[in-house]
Automatic annotation (TrEMBL):
Required for the export of mRNAs containing poly(A) tails from the nucleus into the cytoplasm. May be involved in the terminal step of the mRNA transport through the nuclear pore complex (NPC). Gene3D superfamilies: GLE1-like. It is found in: Cytoplasm; Nucleus, Nuclear pore complex. GO terms for molecular function: inositol hexakisphosphate binding; phospholipid binding; translation initiation factor binding. This is mRNA export factor GLE1. InterPro entries: GLE1, GLE1-like_sf. GO terms for biological process: poly(A)+ mRNA export from nucleus; protein transport. Belongs to the GLE1 family. Its main location: cytoplasm. One of its GO terms (cellular component) is nuclear pore cytoplasmic filaments.
Length: 262
């Protein structure tokens, strides 16, 4: 509910502003320790990324309430946004976007960690689980860049707005595609913020979508084996439908004005 989200936002904002906050039966304040504020900014940013790789990866719609709170906090407390990006880029290099290359002397285990895989006791997580986590983080990022906290000061610019999404898409299309990963990330990104980018960039955006269909999808196909076609097929269908309709649909779960009255 909108009212519940406002409660969460106010509590986080109060904590970061140095006000005493009630939690689990005790009162806490960042002023209780010289590094209190820095610690809270760090842990909060880390938690938002965890929401992306956990909650959002399983429930796509949850990207929007989480993103709108982070967007508002970022506006008032830029340090949280900076640390959030650092955590996000480390956990999901594709959010830069960047495909790390294996350097000489880097062990396979270390390289897999650089690619975003979780490695425990030399066991690498399964591909499906890895893709799900990356998908959740990209969806959260794509939601953040288009949302603003509705009760904030609208005078300033969004701290990390749609221009960053436009840049991400352009850089992504300049990279050589990877099997599995590239098709999934492009589809997630376009599903979540394609509509917002379409409204902002108009004809330039449609030129990019046309480029994806004509030039980039064939390049993804060239590196994709027959057993990895699922995501690529969904991306192809999505792009084709959007070009035919000349419209990118609104993402599922977007917060409407009526949500804030709940």
């Amino acid at each position: 509910a909108g009212s519940k989200l406002r409660e969460v936002f106010d509590k986080i904002n109060n904590l970061l502003s140095g006000k005493p906050v009630q939690t689990e039966g005790q009162t806490v304040s960042v002023t209780q320790h010289p590094q209190g504020l820095e610690f809270v900014c760090y842990k909060l940013a880390e938690k938002f990324v965890r929401h992306g790789e956990g909650e959002v990866s399983f429930h796509h719609d949850s990207a929007f309430p989480i993103a709108v709170v982070l967007s508002g906090i970022w506006e008032l407390h830029p340090r949280v946004g900076d640390i959030f990006l650092a955590h996000l880029h480390k956990k999901c290099p594709y959010s830069v976007p960047f495909y790390p290359a294996r350097k000489e002397g880097t062990s396979m285990e270390e390289y897999q960690r650089m690619l975003g895989y979780e490695v425990h006791d030399s066991k690498v997580e399964e591909q499906d689980h890895f893709l799900k986590r990356m998908s959740g983080m990209i969806r959260l990022y794509a939601a953040i860049i288009q949302l603003r906290w509705p009760y904030g000061n609208k005078q300033g610019a969004h701290p990390h707005g749609l221009s960053y999404g436009w840049r991400w898409l352009a850089q992504m299309l300049n990279l050589e595609p990877l099997a599995d990963v590239t098709a999934m990330l492009l589809l997630d990104f376009l599903e979540v913020c394609g509509n917002a980018l379409m409204k902002q960039y108009g004809i330039q955006f449609w030129k990019t979508v046309f480029f994806i269909q004509k030039s980039y999808i064939p390049r993804i196909e060239a590196v994709t084996s027959s057993g990895q076609m699922g995501c690529l097929s969904r991306l192809k269908n999505f792009v084709q439908k959007c070009l035919q309709a000349e419209e990118i649909p609104l993402p599922k779960g977007i917060l409407t004005p009526s949500f804030w009255r709940t």
